[in-house]
Design brief:
The structure is a single chain. The chain has two domains: 1-231, no CATH class; 236-460, Alpha-Beta Complex (Aminoglycoside 3'-phosphotransferase, Chain: A, domain 2). It contains twelve helices and 18 strands. It has helices at residues 15-26, 124-135, 191-201, 238-247, 253-273, 281-301, 309-324, 364-367, 374-388, 398-414, 422-443, 449-458, and strands spanning 6-7, 42-52, 59-68, 84-92, 103-105, 116-119, 139-140, 143-147, 159-161, 169-173, 177-181, 210-218, 221-230, 236-237, 277-279, 329-331, 343-345, 351-353. The strands form four sheets. Strands 1-7-8-12-13-11-10-9 form an eight-stranded mixed beta sheet. The chain has a five-stranded antiparallel beta sheet with strand order 2-3-4-6-5, with helices on one face. The structure holds adenosine-5'-diphosphate and the ligand O=P(O)(O)O[C@H]1O[C@H](CO)[C@@H](O[C@H]2O[C@H](CO)[C@@H](O)[C@H](O)[C@H]2O)[C@H](O)[C@H]1O. Ligand LMANGFYV is lined by residues 167, 239, 337, 339-341, 355, 360, 382-383, 386, 436, 439. Monomer.
């Protein structure tokens, strides 16, 4: 095992103050910024490490900053310290043309006055430095770069930034590895690292194994900052593939069945790797209460849901009734946010699942709770429905055929057909469709009709007036 390289942390005072006015403008424009719709009124420094001194020809600052924002009305009177974000800031005299799109601005005051600051992920030299830190297991300040020393990490891999819309930010190294840098940082064990590591221990081939990870140790808490994983070269994600096949009028049921098999393989491996529990009456009541609370909050946020509320609620009440009659369910660790966009098919036709972060808006502890596997299944079933309704002429039965094939594939591997628990599945599908209505209303209003159509169906047809 190679020795960790330990370097002292160096930080100059005043750096954050120098960046403050620029970051207030820049941060809210980023896709991954979670506090959309509320201005950023200032920052506090959680941690700062100069990976390269700011006054060198190329400076590189690793910052964890808390963004202060006025409370959203839904937060009520509860104090909220503000979300903590990971930033990698490059500092140069001037930007070479290829880095122009990464410009953050020109600080006017403080130590950085007169220099140019930019989003350093786009700079191959910064990306190289991160990989080198992982390779050599560098520790600097509170930052710790770790790796699985059984996997070779070459030092000549050419980096490129992933430009797709993402909740986080990723760099691909030579089509061999992909480093995901988490943007909104939370203390504690992050399932995006925890679950792929557990699956790698189980030799599950359906999830790319982590080759390295980056954490910050701060005030007795560990924050996962990034995960380096095997890259699946030439992969197409399930969403793009489904839309492509739909547009050609091609059958997708073979792929849907393979996806069901892949999901069941991952669930089986997770049930071996991590604890499973039985959910009885009390636990199911809590689970159903959560669904009802989310419905109520969604109705407040999106009034178009109101007429459907009684019909949607009946899906949750039916589940509570089964629990009251003594039925129990097994819960285990699951993906937590599964949809077609989280599935990658390689050129040989094999599927992998990625992005085990869970629903980013939920606390880590909640995301790490064991849950019925039906929740992931419902996410995928919703995704086939999304694909069928996403613009192209509606192909009759396309979604139904895919949904059935997916469940068949799932049953082939796990021995349990998700359709054999219709009440549980309907409750989870309803919960997900409600989540999607809120998500689309907030982020992509043009897409709102897609989950609303599902709400109409799940609520039992015509809206009650
Ligand atoms: N192991 C991988 N191999 C190939 N591509 C990947 C891999 N992991 C992620 N990607 C690509 O990067 C994109 C973003 O990854 P994801 O983990 O979903 O990030 P985020 O949490 O930011 O949404 C994916 O949609 C996929 O295109
Ligand atoms: O990208 P994330 O994993 O953070 O997930 C969020 O965004 C998704 C959209 O990008 C959203 O997914 C919804 O739209 C998909 C098509 O774009 C569809 O396949 C999914 O089934 C549907 O839920 C997801 O809900 C949201 O959490």
């Amino acid at each position: 095992m190679s020795e960790a390289v330990i370097r002292p942390a160096v930080t100059s005072p005043g750096l954050l103050a120098s960046l403050d006015p620029l970051l207030r403008e820049w941060l809210p424009r980023q896709r991954w910024f979670a506090g959309k719709g509320r201005p950023v009124t200032g920052f506090s420094q959680v941690a700062a490490v100069e990976l390269l001194p700011w006054n060198a020809k190329l400076g590189l600052l690793h910052l964890l900053v808390r963004a202060h924002q006025p409370l959203a009305p839904t937060h009520g009177a509860l104090p909220h310290p503000g979300d903590c974000y990971q930033l990698l800031i490059g500092v140069r005299e001037t930007l070479p043309p290829h880095l122009a799109p990464a410009l953050i601005g020109h600080p006017e005051e403080g130590p950085l006055a007169g220099r140019t600051v930019y989003e350093a992920l786009h700079d191959p030299r910064a990306a190289d430095l991160l990989l080198e830190a992982l390779r050599t297991r560098t520790q600097v300040g509170g930052l710790r770069f770790e790796r699985d020393t059984r996997q070779e990490l070459q030092d000549d891999l050419v980096p490129r930034v992933v430009t797709a819309e993402q909740s986080n930010s990723s760099i691909v190294y030579g089509d061999t590895f992909i480093l995901k840098l988490l943007r909104r940082i939370l203390p504690g064990i992050n399932p995006d690292l925890e679950l792929p590591l557990a699956l790698a221990r189980e030799d599950c081939p359906r999830v790319p194994a982590p080759a390295g990870w980056m954490v910050a140790d701060l005030d007795a808490e560990t924050y996962v900052l990034g995960v380096l994983q095997r890259f699946v070269p030439g992969a197409t994600d399930g969403w793009d593939l489904a839309l492509r096949e739909l547009a050609k009028g091609e059958d997708f049921s073979g792929e849907a069945r393979a996806l069901g098999r892949a999901t069941a393989e991952v669930h089986t491996a997770l049930s071996r790797a991590l604890p499973t529990v039985t959910l009885g009456h009390t636990q199911m009541d809590m689970l159903v209460d959560g669904m009802i609370e989310r419905l109520e909050a969604a109705v407040q946020a999106v009034p178009a849901l109101r007429p459907y509320a009684p019909g949607l609620r009946s899906a949750f009440d039916a589940l509570a009734e089964l629990a009251a009659e003594g039925e129990t369910w097994t819960a285990q660790r699951i993906h937590g946010d599964l949809h077609l966009g989280q599935c990658l098919r390689d050129p040989a036709g094999d599927w992998s699942l990625i992005d085990f972060e869970g629903e980013p808006s939920k606390p880590l502890a909640e995301r790490r709770l064991p849950q019925p596997t039906a929740r992931d299944v419902a996410g995928m079933l919703r995704s086939f429905d999304y694909a069928a309704h996403s613009g192209q002429p509606l192909v009759a039965d396309w979604a139904d055929v895919c949904r059935a094939a997916y469940c068949t594939g799932y049953a082939e591997v796990s021995g349990r057909d998700p359709r054999s628990e219709p009440v549980l599945l309907r409750a989870y599908e309803t919960d997900k469709a409600i989540y999607e209505v809120v998500y689309e209303a907030r982020h992509r209003p043009d897409w709102l009709p897609v989950p609303l159509a599902a709400v109409h169906r799940l609520a039992g047809g015509a809206a009650a007036s």
